[in-house]
Amino acid sequence: MHSFGYRANALLTFAITILAGICALASVSDKLNSPSPSAQIQILNINRFQKKTHGHDEVSLTMNITADLQSLFTWNTKQVFVFLAAEYKTPKNSLNQVSLWDTIIPAKDRAKFQIQTGNKYRFVDQGNNLRGKEFNLTMHWHVMPKTGKMLAGKLVMPGYRLPEEYR
User: In a 3-state reduction of DSSP, which class is residue 108?
Assistant: First the structure.
């Protein structure tokens, strides 16, 4: 006969093994999901475009953001972190990224939205490189699962340009 401690240890080990297996299956099942998120961003107004005292350019925008990110949600999704970045090139750097806006989407029913907002974070270039600059707006997302590996993706929307003159 085995003691109570030996039986409890065997039961606990079996339960943890089954739980680990279920977590692994949950993580693998997310690989079968092929999301197709969509987004459109319209710049409604450039509120302010100026050169700051230290020679840095700063831009304030009003944007209309329309997105459908519901396909990112599965039964294993806890939440989705979304942020919008302006990406452009300068003579010094091949890629500059400036975060303009972000949000956390806690549920699938909130993943389809349309908002009109200004940039939440300052759009500043360290130098005076923004006049007449072409840039992309890129929507990045990070899917935070209940169990398993965090997944990331992005949607690039090219074709935006800043004015030639300060306002």
Answer: helix
Question: 150: which 2 tokens?
Answer: 């965090």
Say which DSSP state 163 is in: -
Structure tokens at 105: 């989407």
Residue pair 80/152 in contact by the 8 Å Cβ criterion: no
Say what the pLDDT of residue 160 is.
Answer: 94
pLDDT in tens, 15-50: 999 999 988 887 777 778 889 999 999 999 999 999
Closest among 164, 166, 127, 157 to 38, alpha carbons compared = 157
- With CA atoms as reference, report the closest residue to 65 among 119, 105, 114: 114
pLDDT band at residue 1 under the 50/70/90 scheme: low
CA 45, CA 164: separation in Å to the nearest integer?
A: 15
Pairing state between β 123-125 and 112-118:
unpaired
Nearest residue to 155 via CA among 167, 138, 136: 138
